[in-house]
Each structure stands twice: as C-alpha cells, then as structure tokens.
C-alpha cells in the first residue's frame, strides 16, 4: 500500500510516498481503508524534530472497516468508521483503536465525520468544560482553524450572547463572520475590547497573555493548544479569573459518557445542517508536503485533508 513517511527532519518537503505492507492488526484495533486523513498542526510540527525515524505521521482518519482485532466486538467489515491513527494516517490503510473509533451515520459525509471526530470533540469538550451559559460572551482564538471554526459555530448554537473570533488575516475574518461570529479581533491589536466571560485559547504563547487579559473577573480561560504559557496564580486571585486545561485524551477516557453524548450531538447538528464543518482543501497523498505547507503558512480556512483515493 502507499503511505507517507519522512526519514529526516525538516520542512514539508521531507514527506514522501512509499510502498509498504499493510499494517498488522493489534487485538484491540480496526484496520480502515482510508478515504480521508486530516492534517493537524501538532503533527505538522513533528517533521521539524522529535519522533524516531522513519516516521509515518498520525492523525484523524475516516474510511471503511476491512479488518478487526481478536478482542474487537460490535463492528463489522464494510462499516464506515472514524477515529485516530497514532501513526500511519496518511496511507491507503490505517489502524485505529476500536474503543475510540466511532461508526459514521449514513446522513454524515466522510469529510464531515473526519472534521468532527477530533476537532468537533475538542470544540464541544472545551465549551462544556468552560460551562458556557446562554448569554455568555465567548472569545475563540485560532478561530478559523480546524477546531476553532467549529467552536465559533457551536458557541452560537449553545446560546452564547456574543462570540468574538480572534484571527491573523482579513480572509479569515470574512470566513469566521460567515460562520456566525459577532465580532472579529486580530492578534496584532493591543486590546480586544470589552472583556469576556470565556476565552478558549487554541494558540498559546504570546496569545495566551492576550487571551488572559481578555477575561473579565469571575470569567475563565480554557487552554487546549500545544504551546502553553505561564500564569501567576496571584494575578488570578487578584483578578478573580480561572485557567483550566483541556486534554482530549483525558476527556475521552475519564468523561466517556459525555464524550459519547457529544459525538451524537455533533452528528445530529451536522446532519441537520446547523453545524457546517469546513474543508479548505483535499489533496492526494503525493501532495502531502503541500498539505503541510498550507497548515504551516496558516492559510487554512477549516480543515486540510489528504485522500488516498484521489
Ligand atoms: N488539547 C487537546 O487535546 C487538543 C486536541 C486537538 C488539538 N489541540 C490543539 O488545538 C490547536 C488548534 O488545532 P487546529 O487543528 O485547529 O489547528 P489549525 O487548523 O492549524 O489552526 C491553528 C491556527 O492557529 C493560528 N496560529 C496563531 N499563531 C500561530 C503560530 N505561531 N503557528 C501556527 N498557527 C498559529 C493560525 O490561525 P491565524 O492565522 O488566524 O492566527 C492557525 O490557522 C493546536 O494547538 C492543537 O495542538 C489540542
């Protein structure tokens, strides 16, 4: 089968398509014939260093079940499924953990399922942890990204009073306004206007500082980006603010009922046309480098996908 790997660190150009045997099923895994694989920022960053080499990038995948491990129950060959491949996602066949894979309903497209299986869960999970109430003001950073563009829409659907989207370019500003954002702010602005009840920060670093300044007393910031930032807890005390971390892996494991409930809600909202996952571009496997470049250059409006069937 064809799969994308890299043998040395560097920019997107290190990615290449290779022919390898199909991966061998573990006892708790599903083997999927992949229709789409998602390209995500933390995985894109890995080409610059970290994983042992050669490395086959992981990510969210959707496809049809073609094999099941000996412990797997409740799945059948031919069923449509979406899940996370910890490596080897940019490939014709990929392994996912059956316990966290989800069957895709008939009324949800493969592309939408791909966007929701991780991004939708992070968006709804962070809004849940933030305990958003109707009327709350919510500011979303990285608002045009794979997670953020769903968070903007879901915050509105949950009844947020005002949703402010923080983005880095005017094309992204137009995009998020089209998704229902009430206001748009840019990272380059010194102030983001009236403080808000809730900030969901998908960027971190310097933007974490701006994000914390944007929270009003008794408001909270949910940090879920892979970059982080420092916080003085005495400052939190004096300003009566809260900072809460969010890990998708822990949410899926330790809040399993809520995770399953969110999955059903995401399917229903999407099938009804109320939630609109956006795909910026879909590319064939041999253009994986271009897919990584789009993410690194911050050009994506929504998700960037790879498809082994193109
Ligand atoms: N906690 C968890 O379990 C979990 C799970 C999944 C993802 N995540 C995290 O969620 C974040 C968003 O993921 P995503 O899939 O939505 O990513 P994405 O589609 O690549 O969007 C990220 C956006 O961040 C903005 N950005 C600001 N500063 C940036 C910088 N220095 N480098 C790159 N981008 C920058 C860019 O938008 P602008 O150009 O508008 O600034 C970019 O489009 C990532 O940090 C990821 O690690 C966390």
Describe the structure.
The chain is of the alpha/beta class and 310 residues long. It has 2 domains: 2-104 and 278-307, Alpha-Beta Complex (Quinone Oxidoreductase, Chain A, domain 1); 119-249, Rossmann fold. 30% of the residues lie in helices and 28% in strands. It has 9 helices and 15 strands. The chain has helices at 41-46, 110-129, 148-157, 170-178, 206-213, 233-239, 248-254, 256-271, 288-296; strands at 2-5, 16-19, 29-39, 59-68, 80-85, 93-97, 102-103, 137-140, 162-167, 183-186, 196-201, 215-223, 242-245, 279-284, 303-307. Strands 3, 4, 5, 6, 7, 14 and 15 form a 7-stranded mixed β-sheet that branches. The chain has a 6-stranded parallel β-sheet with strand order 10-9-8-11-12-13, sandwiched between helices. Helix 5 (206-213) links the parallel strand 11 (196-201) and strand 12 (215-223). Helix 2 (110-129) crosses helix 3, helix 2 crosses helix 8 and helix 7 crosses helix 8. The longest helix has 20 residues, at 110-129. It is globular and about 60 Å long. The relative contact order is 0.16. The structure holds NADP nicotinamide-adenine-dinucleotide phosphate. NADP nicotinamide-adenine-dinucleotide phosphate is lined by residues 40-42, 118, 122, 142, 144-148, 167-169, 172, 202-203, 224-226, 246-248, 295, 298, 300.
């Amino acid at each position: 089968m064809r799969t994308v790997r890299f043998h040395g660190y560097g920019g997107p150009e290190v990615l290449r398509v290779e022919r390898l045997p199909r991966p061998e099923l573990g006892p708790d895994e599903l083997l999927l014939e992949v229709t789409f694989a998602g390209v995500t920022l933390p995985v894109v960053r890995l080409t610059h260093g970290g994983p042992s080499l050669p490395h086959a990038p992981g990510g969210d995948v959707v496809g049809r079940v073609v094999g099941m491990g000996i412990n797997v129950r409740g799945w059948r060959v031919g069923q449509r499924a979406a899940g996370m491949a910890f490596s080897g996602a940019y490939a014709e066949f990929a392994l996912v953990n059956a316990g966290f894979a989800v069957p895709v309903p008939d009324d949800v497209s493969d592309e939408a399922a791909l966007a929701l299986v991780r991004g939708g869960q992070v968006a709804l999970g962070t809004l849940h942890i933030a305990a958003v109430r109707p009327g709350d003001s919510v500011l979303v950073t990285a608002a045009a990204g794979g997670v953020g563009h769903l968070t903007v829409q879901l915050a509105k659907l949950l009844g947020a009073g005002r949703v402010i989207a923080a983005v880095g370019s005017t094309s992204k500003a137009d995009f998020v306004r089209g998704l229902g954002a009430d206001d748009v702010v840019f990272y380059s602005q010194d102030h983001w206007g009236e403080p808000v009840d809730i900030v969901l920060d998908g960027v971190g670093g310097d933007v974490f500082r701006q994000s914390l300044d944007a929270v009003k007393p008794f408001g909270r910031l949910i940090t879920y980006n892979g970059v982080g930032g420092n916080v003085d807890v005495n400052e939190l005390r004096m300003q009566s603010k809260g900072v809460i971390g969010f890990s998708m892996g822990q949410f899926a494991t330790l809040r399993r009922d809520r995770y399953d409930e969110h999955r059903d809600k995401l399917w229903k909202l999407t099938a009804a046309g109320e939630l609109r996952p956006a795909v910026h571009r879909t590319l064939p496997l041999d253009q994986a480098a271009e897919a990584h470049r789009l993410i690194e250059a911050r050009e994506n409006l929504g998700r960037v996908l790879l498809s082994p069937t193109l």
